Amino acid sequence: MSDRYNVKETEARWQKAWADKKCFEVNESSDKPKYYTLAMFPYPSGKLHVGHMRNYTMSDIVARYKRARGHNVLNPMGWDAFGLPAENAAMENKTHPAKWTYANIAAMKNDLKLMGLAIDWSREITTCAPDYYKHEQKYFLDFLKQGLAYQKESFVNWDPVENTVLANEQVVDGRGWRSGALVERRKLKQWFLKITAFADDLLDGIKQLEGWPEKVRLMQENWIGKSQGLKFSFELTKPRGQRLEIYTTRPDTLFGASFVALSPDHPVAQKLAKNDKGIDDFIEKCRKLGTSEAVIETAEKIGHDTGLSVLHPFIPGKTLRVFIANFVLMEYGTGAIFGCPAHDQRDLDFARKYNLDVIPVVIPEDKDPKSFAVDMEAYTGPGRLYNSEFLNGMTVEDAKAEVIKRFEAAKTGTGTTLYRLRDWGVSRQRYWGCPIPVIHCQSCGVVPVPEKDLPVTLPEDVAFDKPGNPIYNHPTWKKVKCPTCGKDAERETDTFDTFFESSWYQFRYCDPHNASQGFAKDKVKYWAPVDQYIGGVEHAVMHLLYARFFTRALKKCGYVDFGEPFSALFTQGMVVHETYKDDNGKWLFPAEVDKGHNGGPIKKGEGTPVTVGRVEKMSKSRKNVVGLEEVSENFGIDAARLLVLSDSPPERDVEWSEGGIEGCWKYVNRVWRLVTAANFDAAGTPDAAMLVKIYRAIQDVTQNYEKFHFNKAIANFRELSNALEDFAAKGGDGKTLKYGAETLLQLMNPVMPHVTEELWQHLGHKEMLVDAPWPALSSEAKEKLKGEQVTIAIQVNGKLRATVMLPRDVPQPDAEQAALGDPAVQKAMEGKSPKKVIVVPNRIINVVV
Fold first, then answer.
1. Of 612, 655, 774, which Cα lies nearest the Cα of 705?
2. Is the pTM above the cut of 0.85?
């Protein structure tokens, strides 16, 4: 065979061979244990690039590895195909969103196939297809019956560019997550799903998600935001007898209160605005912030004095001014709070701005109450109560309980549990989404579309030449007869938030061709929950939380018997790359830059200087993307797969570089030459030392694949290939060399499936490597590993003083003893006692004196 790997011919041939044999198509009849791995499905926005590879390659490694370990592996793929970008593209390119979407799907499917992924394409789904979304319309009708879906007027985040409602999670720094436009606050009638009905269950379920990153679990816990507090009311000074209801999580700080604040949407604020232009203007200014709590939290704290005041419940004669404040949400608690500036940073910022009292009432244990003061940073830690009459000397928790007890005894307040979590607003005023299956009748009210009439499909003859919802503007689509009374009625013209589709897609993969229902219960029972889910951490409080809720809602409706959709979650880092700009500040593609010019990078064809920018996430807008076809043509997909996983732990970002991909391509060819040029007929007896290295590679690579330490697994099999090269160069026996080569190919296969398949065939195997079982260690091999010795460097204060041979994975106390007993180490310690001994397993022992 050639000493150089023919990447173009080989990769295409093996991809066809896997497809022809249907290697990755699975069913429920296997007697093997099931394993369901899933990468978050893509939005079909256009061509893929190597920045997209990492997520899908990780899932592919899991699929191939688990398949070799004897599992019946489901690794499907589909398209999250509804959404505003398709509408925007339709307007820009004067085309239909469906045409744009399906064209992109075709292009991206080719890109995914180019990656050599072990996907069961027979289960492909597309969420914008009526045969998909008709089932979620049925689920919505079921949710209506169960009281989990409802309609109400509410303030919403309105994106004035995209002319649609955004969920709080879709507002980033006060701007729409896609358009970047400043979000406004409007009141509209919206459809909601009652996620709050499962708040406690969602919170409790987090404790069971041991296979999820702690960061994501904490983000969800904070987003649900369970709090214990007090609901009570202040009495207004004018008119006397009227009361203002408050909710607080810090009743212990009531003696430090210096003001009361209302939400701009509070009924009292709204009533005052009718007769006060200043208040009305202030409320309008507040609405420019939108409804996102994160945005409101970071905005400047501003208020407007209403002229009202309330009586303090525990301090006779003390009154508190009542403000309208931009940081108080109507949706949380009662829409009114009292401010204790000394112990809440938001309240402190407000108090300093409006020159209000700052009264410390919780004093740290190590501070003198008489001198303790708060300047520009609120004290939010533990301590004892002070300046608080009957609470003085109590802990924070005891003081909270005492205040609640007194209000409840007086029947003027109650201890209450509240949540930060809000019901999920699923209405969107756009065309390219799933129609909400209800009808509005003036006689009957809201009427569900009969199940026999599902799916409610989108009209195809829509126009995007004027602002607003194209469905609402359609001349005939919304006109319909009421299914209850037969009178003229109108269809709902809002469509679902696209997170609706992605909240249950993992179950559709289990039964994708079922026309009568979204999935059969027995098939979902076989495959679900997903064993390993892989995607970005940016979905922690949107998709991942919604999918957990949706699964519980489906369970309540009888569709599934479990509550968690994903047993384990892995959040991968991104692929980053240098950025380039010309002397006019215009972004350039890497292919437009000559980096080898002696005077520094220049623009090809013009010779003008180019500025090399910082390394950033690959982005079409910054033009720092590298195309899959370009990489496949020049280096092969295996080299690209190797690069995106080898230089960094998979949860961290990895940098793409020309030098990196060239190095990986060289390594692919080294492996090619190692196997194709080896003399497997060389005489000799099995080499014990080489065999132990092979056994070690099997053990280490297996463990690292299991732990998602893909970069370490790659380092392990590269170490083995280096050892095999040396062994072959020294004329090692052919039997050991062949066993090592076969093992190397098996260990590399999940990462580099094409070249390993080709070389496996070269070694004389008739069956494909993809169908070969994972290499196993015999009891004899395991015993030999136990006796393996490794050379360990011993340092004193970071300087090398000696080396020692110790058993691999020696217990730390034994390693410390060996280091401290070495004469060279004792001499370097100069009679001093060690402060600590740092052991890096199998590598270094550092004695610190």
1. 774
2. yes
